């Protein structure tokens, strides 16, 4: 079985955040387990292009990948338009990631002509929050570019929340659940430090303004506590810094920029907890990354992490400053050793090695139907 992953951007285009890492690690692990998979993508990386060999297959961590050169970044690649048909002709199953991106309808059209099976991953793009801006154009895009091909499409959801979002728009959709994940190893013991952590790009969807408002109240009861927010600026750092300054918290709240690798692991491991106050997440990979380090998580009810409360690995909170404050204070006042063990135990269920096996099983099932 030959699989082609068609995706508008791919690692190392890390400017796009967690979904890039999720796609990369899943592909890498599946290839290591023997899946014959090739990646077809572009060299887009935000407002820039990746400095990488383009328009031909190269090796990347055990699989082949082709970065098509984009003449107009994020909007079009002539090489992809004219080259994709050749790359897909010998493929058995197409895995398409992204909805509102031009490679998707091109690949769907080719899949129709070549009579190929398709697995389509929305990656959060069908959430209610995503339709708050540009909803007319997005609905038009769905009607013109996606719906004509849906009879041949199998859907991929990373959570029950995303599955329900797909069903709202495509009631007859056949959906497979494959979560995102992380690599889970034995925890290296470290001394917890007196801070709560948040991790992710500084974008309005992440709800960091809510967290800062909440922290301003928590600070009254826990004056020595710090808040550390890690992630690159994606348009709202100045506004968040002003909010911190208005609350007189400049010595207690820090924006530490992008972190990765061992630095990220240590940042999460030393934190009292990770807080994820997002307005929406189709999965929220930072939650499982924190739990893999034995750190409890407080996640908003706009994320699909109800299980952390069920398994006593954290709390699932209404996404407003007062409820978030109550959840954080409740955790800080507890002896959290049990929650730390439960968090690490829960994370093991999301290990990439397990997720990659499930991914291959789904692809084989689609291929054989």
Structure in words:
α4 (135-146) links the parallel β8 and β9. Helices cover 40% and strands 19% of the residues. It has helices at residues 18-32, 78-89, 103-114, 135-146, 160-169, 208-221, 237-246, 261-270, 285-292, 307-310, 321-332, 337-347, 352-368; strands at residues 2-6, 36-42, 44-45, 48-49, 57-60, 63-68, 93-97, 117-121, 153-157, 175-177, 195-199, 226-230, 253-257, 274-276, 297-300, 314-317. It has 2 domains: 2-181 and 351-368, Glycogen Phosphorylase B (Rossmann fold); 195-349, Glycogen Phosphorylase B (Rossmann fold, 3-Layer(aba) Sandwich), CATH 3.40.50. The strands form 4 sheets. The chain has an 8-stranded mixed beta sheet, with helices on both faces. A 3-stranded parallel beta sheet has the order 11-12-13, sandwiched between helices. The protein is an alpha/beta fold and 369 residues long. It starts with a strand and ends with a helix. The chain is globular. The protein is built from 13 helices and 16 strands. The longest helix has 17 residues, at 352-368. α1 (18-32) packs across α13, α2 (78-89) packs parallel to α3 (103-114) and α9 (285-292) crosses α12.
């Amino acid at each position: 079985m030959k699989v082609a992953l068609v995706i508008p951007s791919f690692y190392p285009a890390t400017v796009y955040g967690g979904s890039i890492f999720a796609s990369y690690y899943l592909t890498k692990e599946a290839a290591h387990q023997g899946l014959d998979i090739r990646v077809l993508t572009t060299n887009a990386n935000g407002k820039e292009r990746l400095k990488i060999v383009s328009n031909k297959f190269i090796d990347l961590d055990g699989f082949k990948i082709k970065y098509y050169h984009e003449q107009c970044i994020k909007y079009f690649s002539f090489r992809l338009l004219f080259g994709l048909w050749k790359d897909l002709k010998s493929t058995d199953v197409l895995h398409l990631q992204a909805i509102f991106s031009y490679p998707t309808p091109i690949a769907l059209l080719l899949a129709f002509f070549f009579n190929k099976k398709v697995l389509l991953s929305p990656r959060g793009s069908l959430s209610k929050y995503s339709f708050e801006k540009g909803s007319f154009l997005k609905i038009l895009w769905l009607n013109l570019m996606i719906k004509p091909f849906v009879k041949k499409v199998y859907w991929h959801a990373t959570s029950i929340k995303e599955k329900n979002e797909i069903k709202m728009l495509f009631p007859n959709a056949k959906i497979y659940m494959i979560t995102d994940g992380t690599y889970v190893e034995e925890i290296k013991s470290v001394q917890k430090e007196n801070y709560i952590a948040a991790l992710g790009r500084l974008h309005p969807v992440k709800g960091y303004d809510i967290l800062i408002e909440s922290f301003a109240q928590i600070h009254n009861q826990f004056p020595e506590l710090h808040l550390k927010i890690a992630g690159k600026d994606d348009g709202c750092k100045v506004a968040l810094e002003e909010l911190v300054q208005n609350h007189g918290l400049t010595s207690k709240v820090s924006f530490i920029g992008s972190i990765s690798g061992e630095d990220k692991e240590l940042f999460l491991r030393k934190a009292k907890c990770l807080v994820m106050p997002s307005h929406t997440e189709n999965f929220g990979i930072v939650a499982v990354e924190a739990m893999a380090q034995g750190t409890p998580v407080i996640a908003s009810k706009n994320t699909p992490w109800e299980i952390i409360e069920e398994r006593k690995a954290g709390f699932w909170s209404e996404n407003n400053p007062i409820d978030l404050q109550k959840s954080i204070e409740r955790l800080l006042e507890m002896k959290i050793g049990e929650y730390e063990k439960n968090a690490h135990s829960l994370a093991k269920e999301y290990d990439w090695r397990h997720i990659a096996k499930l991914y291959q099983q789904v692809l084989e099932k689609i291929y054989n139907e």
